[in-house]
Amino acid sequence: MDIYTNPQKHTYVTGITKFFLMPTDSGGIPAVAVSKRASVYISSTYTILMILIFMVGWNLIIAVIMAFWPTRKDPNRQVALVALWNSGESMNAFTLMVSYCERVILHMLGRGPKVSPPDLEAKRDSADEAGAGQRSRTSPDGISPTAEKVPLVQGGRNGTQEGASASNPKCGVSNLLWGLLFAFLALAMTVGNVVSGIFVPVQLSMGHVVPPAKDVIFYPDVLFYNRPDDNGAGRAKLNSLRAPSALRALGSIEASKVTVRDRVSVDVKTEEGSTHASYNYTVTGVDMGLQTDPGLQLRVKGECHTDETWFLGSTDKEDTYRLFGRNKTFAVARQPLVDFPPMVNFQIDENTPDESTSNTSYAMIINTSGLYSYTSGQDPWYFTDKAGSNASVAYEVRRGRPALSCWEVSRWHLNGKDVDVLNLDQLPGLKLHKLWIKDVFPYEFGAPRVVTVGRAAGPSALKSASYAMAPSYILDAEASAIKDDLERLLLGGWVSSRNVLRDTTTYDKGKIQGVTEGSGGSVPADAAKFVLQSGDVETLSVRILIAVPAILLFLFVVQKTLSCVLRHSHATKEYIIPNKKKGALNEKKDAVALVATQLFRRLYQEIPVDLGVWSHEASIIPLIYPPETKEQITKTDEKTGTETTEKPVNDAQ
User: Fold this and answer.
1) Residue ranges per domain, the chain?
2) How far apart are CA 588 and CA 584, in angstroms?
């Protein structure tokens, strides 16, 4: 579970045409970000497109089967073609093919219906009489019936058909295998349709990241505000500017501590009043939202231990320490009056022996000395004694709490190469914009992140502060420990490191001077190559956005091309429904003739009625056009020679 604050809408850019790279561990993925509302419509549209893809794909499979499957004059195969063509969709085709295979299996096992030769002859005679009877019926337009006996399928007792070759019905292993293949294809298309309808919309949405608007990016001029001649006013402004982001980082780990804890390794041991801690973590370019360098890594490791030798002495007003074993001392005011929360002071050793390395020494000095507690504590920072008789609380934190002496090493890593944290510009293969390389990252990561976050958070830095409520600020020493305080700061440091770029869109700059202000008060467009996190947007994969309609278009073009080629080719194939016109080219394709409307036309055409001529015999919907007549008929009387005009009667009415 990742916790973040949704940025304001004016801080990011959305739109189906606003392409960017979504950083992932495997590299950048082309993406676009849209609003939640728009994503619902797009997802629904692509679900429909997937249905159309499998619909067109199934039609293409049917067309290939109809064109190229050899029926070998076998009516059993021909009936399978009729079933497939009229199945409508793949699931129905699967059901029909399973039924077809069952019939074939029953025949192969000898369990099918038995028809004796006399019965077969009787059925043929019955079919002939039925055909003759239907021909003798009165037509719908009142024309007199004809006694001509014309069978629907012309042929003799030997099974030959006029205009067609002799049939050769078979029910063997070959038909069964073909039926199973067709059933498998239909089932595969059905399952694929269902699965794609579920998973494609899921894969379409990749997360909740969005590129920032370059006009809102701001970073303060750290060099200007770190001047030693302003009595610390500049540093106070920087801390004030960073405080909201530090508090967000610390607040987020309270809700997502388990997730963040997996990214930060902290091992703290306390024995005999002494504490030793080691930690390490990695912040990747993906964590920071870098579009240009998702593989970039900041590798951090460090150690801390309590050092009681730094404590020099204590008075009623303060405790004094000599840090890093040097002559410079540091005093921490005691808190005999309960009017201030527990806080920690951070000091960085500026006299690093080798400035070319990234090893930074720093100290953490607690100010809990003299604070009261409801409970007794044994932790080095919260060790309590019995309070005086005048105190209303039972316990008081002992004077001279030990300082925490720490060191930390930070290095940048990319493509197997690493450099010191201050030499990022020397890392080969780096595509990061120079604004971040020279003006931001050196100041953000030059000092230990735990120090930066702790200073900006102020009274909220320590975990124990959450137990000391205003206005009394009385501790719960038993529940407080160095381990919890250090872990809180380290986890907050990781979150804050991850949010370095994102925080540049949230700073309330006011009148603070920034380094990002150029012409028009914005940064270059190629400097805004990172992403923000927002629950108000959906990140969609450009690959799927393009691939789905492209596949649909491809299948549609292939289907139409195949249909056109077959329609104009001279390839011969035995016809399922024979043409009774001898020697004439059969212009009715099987694929069209098998449609129910064409089957109706073929049966209706056998009735000798003069309603007109059937047209569009190679179309899905055939029509009868009535005979052409003149609008008026002129008759001449032979005796008188006079002419009369009559309105004709339409026989088709």
Assistant:
1) 120-136+147-169, 266-509, 589-653
2) 11
